[in-house]
């Protein structure tokens, strides 16, 4: 028996009986998603490793269902916008906590420190999920549902950095009385904040260097959605002395990796 025959036999064991056409159709959909301007039938057949007659038959079924249409180039096919509607419905049905929690729990076990997950509500950060330290002794004062200022928290600066370019001006103008030095490290000057936000976008992460509370530092990363917006942020809080001991880089990597995994769950794709 040839290797190909064995592979096909094993492949059939992994698939429910009678679903071969379904799996092949989904395979064609995945391939066509890489060809927004259309893919010729012959090339599609090569990529899918199916004969042309099978590919043509499957395409006819997808076309009749409204998922595939003929591209401008003769003999080529592309996906329709019906997938956009389905994708938006799938995203709207996601419970963000259910999506993010497994990744946040993994981060919590990996670093052993407080893990926070937040969204932005107008001009504030709202904490929507929190995990206490597994090895560290420090318990932060933050609680689920708490509103925090944008200017003096790592997650808040994430939202400012990835928001509209003129938003910091608006924020400073409308929150002059609220912006105050909570510690000696709090950034209260707009030019310095613009420098900070530029560095955040460059590094892909933000830090709270005892800007909200002495003795407590925080590292945060942005969570992107399918539209490349930043609706959420993830962070790790720990004693500054502990951060100095383990080093920023040792925490930065798992925080960024966690944010990236949640972003991928929300449909965000990175391009090289």
Automatic annotation (TrEMBL):
Transcription is among the record's keywords: yes
SMART domains associated with the record: HTH_ICLR
Keywords: DNA-binding, Transcription, Transcription regulation
Keyword Transit peptide listed: no
Protein known as: Transcriptional regulator
Entry GO MF terms: DNA binding; DNA-binding transcription factor activity
Gene Ontology biological process terms, A to Z: negative regulation of DNA-templated transcription
All copies of domain HTH iclR-type, residue ranges: 19-81
PANTHER family: DNA-BINDING TRANSCRIPTIONAL REPRESSOR YIAJ (PTHR30136:SF19), HELIX-TURN-HELIX TRANSCRIPTIONAL REGULATOR, ICLR FAMILY (PTHR30136)
Domain IclR-ED: 82-268
SUPFAM superfamilies reported in the protein's UniProt record: GAF domain-like, Winged helix' DNA-binding domain
Lineage, opening ranks: Bacteria, Pseudomonadati, Pseudomonadota, Gammaproteobacteria, Enterobacterales
